Amino acid sequence: MPTARIYQRPKNSTQSGRANTNRWQLEFAPEHAKHADPLTGWAGSEDVREQIRLSFPTREAAIAYAEREGLAFTVHEAPERKLKLQAYADNFR
What we know:
Layout: E1 3-8, E2 24-28, E3 35-36, E4 43-44, E5 53-56, H1 59-68, E6 72-76
Parallel strand pairs: 1-6
Antiparallel strand pairs: 1-2, 2-5, 3-4
InterPro entries: NADH_UbQ_FeS_4_mit-like (IPR006885), NDUFS4-like_sf (IPR038532)
Main location: membrane
Protein name: ETC complex I subunit
């Protein structure tokens, strides 16, 4: 039975906005180990599910899809945002 991971993407530290951080992602766990290609040396595998990443508007929609398709899944909550409030004058203390 394929396993999946459901998570909400956190905001990248290099981003100033929060676009697409409210969507939930479902991605499949790899079923086969990666191996080095003899010609190029790049890592790869025969597992095409590794390339699939589904996007859902809500956590419940992602869970409903996984249950409907008979997938074993784990849900990873997004880390809580921590705001560090600081004044510009604090840079010169």
